[in-house]
Amino acid sequence: MTPLPNTSHDHFFLKHLQSVKAKSEWYYNQRFLGRGGNGTAFLVTCSSGPNIGMQFVLKVFHKISEPSRRNAFLAEIGHLRSLDHPAITKIFDEGIFNAETGMKYPFAVIEFVPVTARTLLISKLIDRLQAMRIALNCLSAIHCMHTAPKPLIHRDIKPENILISEMGAKLADFGLVKALADFQAEDIVDAIEGTQWPGMPLRYRTPELVERAHKAATLITPKSDIYQFGTVFYELLTGFNPQRQPIDVKDPIVLELREIKGNQGHELGLLIKQMLAEKPSNRPPAKYCLNQLNKIHQAYCASLFDITGQFV
Questions:
Q1: Over 80: is that where the pLDDT of 275 sits?
Q2: Is position 306 annotated as part of the catalytic site?
Q3: pLDDT of residue 21
Q4: For the segment 77-118, what is each residue's pLDDT rounded down to a tens digit?
Q5: Residue 199 — very low, low, confident or very high, per pLDDT cuts 50/70/90?
Q6: What domains appear along the chain, each with residue ranges and CATH number?
Q7: Among 225, 231, 176, 175, which residue's Cα sits nearest to residue 203?
Q8: Active-site entry in 84, 93, 127, 156
Q9: CA distance 267 to 138
Q10: pTM for this structure?
């Protein structure tokens, strides 16, 4: 019988104003931000080097009892380092925290953006123009991932993982990201269990991810991200999640798509229906979605100018 891992050190805590040394600079803790299945996040301030005085997120991997999860965390850092795109969150530093217990906790220093698309949806502070521009940014990031030298699949696209700043939207949280080559291997194993299993957010599932929950060898392609973001985009435009709430994450997806009315509503509805096609082969790639949305966005801006006389 395989012995259970020792989980007594699977937690992490920093005192208020406690300093942490990364590879490049020092950072001190401002406050606790949150804790997930694998990592704990803190808001920190840089106290040395060229970024002194800037705030960042310190994301610490605490599930050290499971080497497979540690490797997945380090892979996440590597993926973010390799993707140089303005709509993808940036890693500024990384390191290993040596606790007094002798345990070693890997961490990354990530840019801090406090507002998410979920924040906008809850506050109802998002209009059609902003929804389209958020979508343009995210689709550009998705296109970058899908066309990278080693193509990546995000798998966790949801409003909580879209950060909103004055400069635009950014795709965040690459904890479930997977290289396309990994899915094409004969033996597919994910370091996912507990609340993350089987590797998809409950309200933003895709047909392939649901099938994979039943059959582990199901091939996942970049088209899964297209479906996932199509769900998010529809919600950004309408305030309504088109996926009926499932009882179980493995239940079939049932869509309730309502007509998108108003200026460019028909064109937006057609694009989203393409993105939410049941079969992956019927969904367009990110580049096509970008081109189509660019045309819709331009037409929408032109119509607003005709009505108001103002540039938007």
A1: yes
A2: no
A3: 98
A4: 888 888 999 999 999 999 999 998 899 999 999 999 999 999
A5: low
A6: 19-111 (3.30.200.20), 115-308 (1.10.510.10)
A7: 231
A8: 156
A9: 19
A10: 0.90
At residue 182, the pLDDT reads 67
| CA 88 vs CA 80, 137, 161: distances in Å | 8, 9, 11
Please give the pLDDT value at position 20: 98
Angle between helices 223-238 and 286-308 (to 10 degrees): 20
pLDDT at residue 70, as a whole number: 86
Contacts 24+ apart (CB under 8 A), 70-74: 70/106, 71/191, 72/38, 72/175, 72/191, 73/38, 73/39, 73/106, 73/175, 74/106
Q: Residue type for 189, please?
A: V
